[in-house]
Amino acid sequence: MPKVLISDQLSPAAIDVFKQRGIEAVVKPGLTPAELRAIIGAFDGLAIRSATKVTRELLDAATNLKVIGRAGIGIDNVDVKSATARGVVVMNTPYGNAITTAEHAIGLMFALARQLPEASASTKAGKWEKNRFMGVELTNKTLGLIGAGNIGSIVADRAVGLKMRVVAYDPYLTEARATVLGIEKVELDTLLARADFITLHTPLTEQTRNILSRENLAKTKKGVRIVNCARGGLIDETALYDALQSGHVAGAALDVFEVEPATASPLFALENVVCTPHLGAATTEAQENVALQVAEQISDFLLTGAVTNAVNMASVSAEDAPRLKPYMQLCQLLGSFAGQLTEARHGVITKVGIEYEGAAAHLNHRPLSAALFAGLLAPMMEGVNMVNAPVFARDHGIDMSETVHDRDSEYQTLVRISVTTGDQTRTVSGTLFGGAKPRLVEVKGIKVEADFGRHMLYVTNQDKPGFIARCSAILAEKNINIATFHLGRASEGGDAVCLISIDETLPEAALVAIRALPQVMQATQLAF
Ligand SMILES: NC(=O)C1=CN([C@@H]2O[C@H](COP(=O)(O)OP(=O)(O)OC[C@H]3O[C@@H](n4cnc5c(N)ncnc54)[C@H](O)[C@@H]3O)[C@@H](O)[C@H]2O)C=CC1
Ligand SMILES: O=C(O)C(=O)COP(=O)(O)O
């Protein structure tokens, strides 16, 4: 039974899903990094929010981990690069808390405009300071949106409803989308100069870190009010403090901080600052949404191989997963076959071509090609799998091409792989027999029909009499049982290939004896 660790506060809805799906869920929020490292090795999945920091050190200890599910959007608390290198899928739930977070941003904007928290505190203190709290209207004000993705778009929609003018800076926002949203796409400097309110809705990346730097804060309109419901690192907090103190920035509402939990900050002392403890996603509805989604996604992946909302792997829908499963196996085996034939003396792999024909042409290819690369690179690299294989291939400069043939194939379905090392290119093709069983149908342009056995012997030889008898004799001499024996040849008396499935590993001496046969050019032992 797969085991999942829930290391942050997740709605109990997640536990119910895991239980129903037959997955053991262990709930342990609030562990220290050392405590987490001590137990993570026992788990196949990890479900988190923003509190758990998934560092390289934690991943080093996560020897069984296959999937990390983030019940929420931001994954800046996960070292995705290290997870990918270790073959761990990282998923998030990109929509489940978007409305809630957008509503929090709008709520904070109102709180700033009317100083609601201070007015509430003053009233509760019995002061009745009716003249102290003079607010500003939102109607006809300009809202500057930095980041117009899921959350930013919802904020824009609500702000337009409040009769605000919305300008947006987002390099990936198209003019057409801006028109649909009823907003104006502008450059950052224009936004800074025009906005009465600024709200941030980008992920924290190297490009967005400090996007409201001291320099950019100085470019804002005097009296601007700033809302940050995205990530702490987007604003230079010291520069913001200074701008608030000087009155250049009239107010700031912060849900997120550079260091969290934020239990002390000079900003807390300022009257014109409203703070919430990273509550953007904290509604019953959003927490139920993200908990259910993450539990379903983790379960689907661990139980069926379906991949949803992964940030480091191609998606495989729940509907596609069973259909792709035999193809994944075929691709992995074809890759493994080609990989095992690629001897170091031939040089490094420079190019891989993958062709899909017949029924295979109509499938989702990215996961299939990833499975093929996993098989291909496994003999050369440790710990390679579908998640990290495409990255390894790219990092090693392997040029990959995929071709889909929309033509009638001799086979109902066919996958062909061409691997180039130095100036040599080898091809291997396979099909699914009966729609489910992987079968080799061609090696180096020679037709040969063979199932993949656990132990196999691959021989290239001259098509001359005597080879079969001598080869069989060597195997018999070592008491090695032959399961299947398949032959193919390019032409009568020409190049031939022989694939022998045997019941156990062949001793090295027998392999040497086969290589010494006069007809034999190459003999390689393969394992699947
Ligand atoms: N306070 C909270 O509890 C929550 C905070 N968040 C934060 O909100 C962020 C945004 O969430 P979504 O809108 O769902 O993400 P999204 O991916 O839909 O949108 C992000 C937008 O930022 C834009 N962007 C990327 N780089 C940019 C740059 N350099 N300059 C300007 N725009 C840039 C992208 O083009 C995209 O449109 C998340 O990454 C997360 O950090 C999300 C949920 C809850
Ligand atoms: O989804 C996000 O990106 C959030 O920031 C929400 O964080 P949380 O799950 O409330 O810790």
From TrEMBL:
Gene Ontology biological process: L-serine biosynthetic process
Catalytic activity entry: (2R)-3-phosphoglycerate + NAD(+) = 3-phosphooxypyruvate + NADH + H(+); (R)-2-hydroxyglutarate + NAD(+) = 2-oxoglutarate + NADH + H(+)
Pfam short name (any one): ACT
Keywords: Amino-acid biosynthesis, NAD, Oxidoreductase, Serine biosynthesis
Record GO terms (molecular function): NAD binding; phosphoglycerate dehydrogenase activity
Matching Gene3D superfamilies: 3.30.70.260, D-3-phosphoglycerate dehydrogenase, domain 3 (3.30.1330.90), NAD(P)-binding Rossmann-like Domain (3.40.50.720)
ACT domain location: 456-528
Pathway membership: Amino-acid biosynthesis; L-serine biosynthesis; L-serine from 3-phospho-D-glycerate: step 1/3
EC number: 1.1.1.95
Family recorded in the similarity comment: Belongs to the D-isomer specific 2-hydroxyacid dehydrogenase family.
Matches recorded under PANTHER family: FORMATE DEHYDROGENASE 1 (PTHR42938), HYDROXYPYRUVATE REDUCTASE (PTHR42938:SF47)
Role description: Catalyzes the reversible oxidation of 3-phospho-D-glycerate to 3-phosphonooxypyruvate, the first step of the phosphorylated L-serine biosynthesis pathway. Also catalyzes the reversible oxidation of 2-hydroxyglutarate to 2-oxoglutarate.
The protein, known as: D-3-phosphoglycerate dehydrogenase
Organism: Acidiphilium acidophilum (Thiobacillus acidophilus)
